[in-house]
Amino acid sequence: MSTLSTPAGAQPSGGRLHVDPAAPEVLRAEGEIDIDVVHTFAGTLGVDEVAVGRTLAAAGVEEVDLSGATFIDSSAIALLVSIAPHRRPERLRVRGATGAPLMTLQVTGLDAVLDMVPARP
After folding, report:
1. Residue 7: in which H helix or E strand, if any?
2. At the N or C end, where does the chain have fewer CB atoms within 10 A?
3. Rounded to the nearest 10 degrees, how much is the dihedral formed by the CA atoms of 94, 96, 98, 101?
């Protein structure tokens, strides 16, 4: 597994995606995750939006923590979908989804194909 870190403050003010070097298996989402946030995050990794999932999976990301997310749009859904196939036979874990992000995952049916786990206490 390689490590992948993203600089703090590298995301637009509405939201943030980052991989903490202390926990490189977790992609953390904070605030409103929309196309601008995903695009900027891809840029910090040096890839386009299509390659983000493969890049994260290759770096060892096993979980997406949505406990800090207040909103996710279709680009965030695409990000989750792009990581998931690279985790097979394991399922991608999504931790702490509540409110609007959880509703989005339920409406799209992704909650049935992802390993949904509660937030850590």
Report:
1. none
2. C
3. -40
Q: Please give the backbone phi and psi of residue 67, each rounded to the nearest 5 degrees, phi first.
A: -65, -25
Q: Distance between CA 108 and CA 121 in Å, rounded? A: 27
What is the rounded CA–CA span in Å between residue 91 and residue 29? Answer: 18
Supply φ then ψ for residue 117, to 5 degrees: -130, 150
Listing from the earlier edge strand, what are the strands of the sheet with 63-72? Answer: 15-19, 26-33, 63-72, 93-95, 115-117
Task: State the number of CA atoms in the 13 A half-sphere of 77 facing the CB.
Answer: 16
Show the tokens assigned to 1.
């597994």
Is 57 a domain residue?
Answer: yes
Domain that holds residue 78: 15-117
Tell me the backbone φ, ψ of residue 110, rounded to 5 degrees. Answer: -70, -25
Q: What is the pLDDT of residues 34-86, one digit of tens each?
A: 999 999 999 999 999 999 999 999 999 999 999 999 999 999 999 999 999 99
CATH number of residue 112's parent domain: 3.30.750.24
